[in-house]
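Example 3.2
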Amino acid sequence: MEHTSSFTRRVATAALITLLIAALFCLIGYAASFFFLVFGGITFAVIISAMAHFIQHKTPLSYGLSVAIVLLLLVGLIGGTIWGLAPTVSQQANDLAESLPKSVDQLKMTLQETKWGRKLLDGIPENPSDLLSSGGPGKGVLSELTGIFSGTLGGLVNVLIVIITGIYLAFNPGTYRKGFVRLFNPSYRNRLLDVMDTCYSALKNWFISRTITMTVVGVVTGIGLGLLGVPFAIVLGIVAGVLNFIPNLGPYLALVPALLVALPQGPEYLLYVFALYMGVQSLEGYVLTPLLDKKFVSLPPALLLFGQVLMGILVGLVGILFASPLIAVLMIIVEELYVNDRLEHKT
């Protein structure tokens, strides 16, 4: 009788664990955006904390006061940059917005001159609003614009959530670390804290590496476009630097507006701009990134691309943006907790 009762308890426990795992996967599938918001807040907290620790080590200030100084410096840096560059960038952005439709029209005229170009244009509606219509009554441009506005507002709210979460985590990271490890067996808590420290270093190094590459790509691209005489060089340089935040895909997204701007100046400028962007990406991919990988963090390119595609399918643009740091953290977790602790028993 006792044996039967023990067997029943084991079966019930196994069934419960199976149901909990299934529920966890369902929760991840339905609430993937939530998990990415949490991870975004953690990443922002790591950035703030890394800067605060630097200030704390160089000065006699406490950690909390160092965090406050970091936040003030970030606000001042962003505000000063906007104040200093706003007139030029705003003017170039307005001119660029007016120039792009003309470049698109010229591109259409160029395509009309070739057979394959005409076939391509035949698949594009003559009325641009048709692209915005979903085909049903009342589902035209107005409803689409409403959806765009709602999506933009939701994106701003998500950014605000990430910032606030990051600030809370950065001011008192010890409380959250200790609270998390208390969910596990006491004998394994110190090991988890070590792995969390390793993940923290990886995220910090990823941020440093990304900041350097974005700055170099943006500055070199802007200077190169200016020397070529391409209009809106400052704005296009900023776009190239910002989109370089997205490995693999970002540089090609930044190339599109640059080619459209260069199109009215002649076919040779298309070649010059294309060569410039490919040269900058070669500099980043074959010189800058390998040097940074030796000092900071290295991600396998194929694994990163697959991760971007998968996370883009799951949560869209947010998944693509955070694919790089998330994969860096997952690689450490798998290496430390599965390969080292389970397969090779190094700890």
